[in-house]
Every structure is written in C-alpha cells, then in structure tokens.
Specification:
Elements: H1 19-38, H2 40-58, H3 62-89, H4 92-116, H5 124-149
Helix pairs in contact: 1-3, 2-3, 2-5, 3-4, 4-5
C-alpha cells in the first residue's frame, strides 16, 4: 500500500459495500455513539467534569490551583475517553483494562476531595458536591463492572497476565 496515495480510503474499508450496507453501517455507528454518550457512567463523568471545573475555578491560590486543578482536570478528561473505549469495545479484556484505569483516576479525584476539605483557598461547597458526585460514580462503577463480568469469554488473552478470567 502506498501511504501517499490519495485514492485509498481508510485502508480500503467499505470499498466492497453497497450503498445500503454503507447506510446500515452508518446507522449502527450512530446508534453505538448514542449508546456511549447516554450511558449513565458517561453522564456522571460529564457531571464530575463540570463540578471539578467549578471547583478549580474557585481555588484562589494560584499555586494550589495548579497543584490540585491540573491533575484533577486531567483525570476528569481521561475517564470519559476510557469509558468510551470500554463501552464500545464489547471485549471483556479491554473493558477490564479501561475499568482499572478509570478506577485509578476516580480514586485520585475522590482522595483529592479529602485533602481539599482542609484548604481555605477553595469553595467548600464544590468540594462537598464533588465528593457526592464521586460517590454516585463509584456506585455506578460497581454496577457497570457487574455488567462487564457477564460478558462472554473471548479468545483474546492478556499477555501481561493481569486480567485473567475465572474459568
């Protein structure tokens, strides 16, 4: 394959599809995107992002804003991306890998609320609101992991040996 060839479209994907098949594929992709966006975990992650943004803006000390804010915002942006990958994958292994990353970032945010409770340079209403939103997220996460555990076995094997299915 010549990478500079402008006639190639997405590695030839869809070249053999009829217009009806392309339309059906587009419809399925739109439905999957809608399912990911409307998933309760995604909705909760968006709410957490809004609260963290307000919380960070409420921090009056510039050094504290940089210390707490940038890392909390980073975690808030990673969570929805990993959720989208997990929800859309249909793979137990990929879902578990992403769930572990999501959990790590969510734990960081939740733990951060404990430290921020003692800071005078932040609006404590946002700290409490974020803690409540994170606990909701945690509850949704537990239910979501139960859904992942119900996924069918797949042929992919975790080459790192971390995520092994009982069986």
């Amino acid at each position: 394959m010549n990478w500079d060839d402008e006639d190639d479209n997405d590695f030839g994907f869809g070249d053999e599809l009829t217009p009806e098949e392309n339309e059906e594929l587009d419809r399925q992709m739109r439905e999957e995107d809608k399912r990911r966006r409307n998933h309760p975990m995604t909705q909760q992650a968006e709410e957490i992002y809004r609260v963290v943004t307000a919380l960070v803006e409420s921090i009056t000390d510039e050094m504290e804003r940089e210390m707490f804010g940038s890392t909390m915002l980073d975690s808030c942006m990673i969570i929805p991306a990993k959720l989208a990958g997990a929800i859309g994958s249909g793979s137990w292994l990929l879902s578990m890998q992403n769930a572990a990353i999501i959990r790590s970032h969510a734990e960081y945010i939740l733990t951060g609320t404990s430290g921020l409770k003692y800071e005078s340079n932040v609006d404590q209403r946002y700290v409490q609101m974020l803690r409540e939103e994170m606990l909701k997220f945690q509850s949704l996460f537990v239910e979501w992991v139960k859904e992942i555990q119900q996924m069918e076995d797949e042929e992919y094997v975790d080459e790192w040996g971390l995520f092994l299915r009982k069986g």
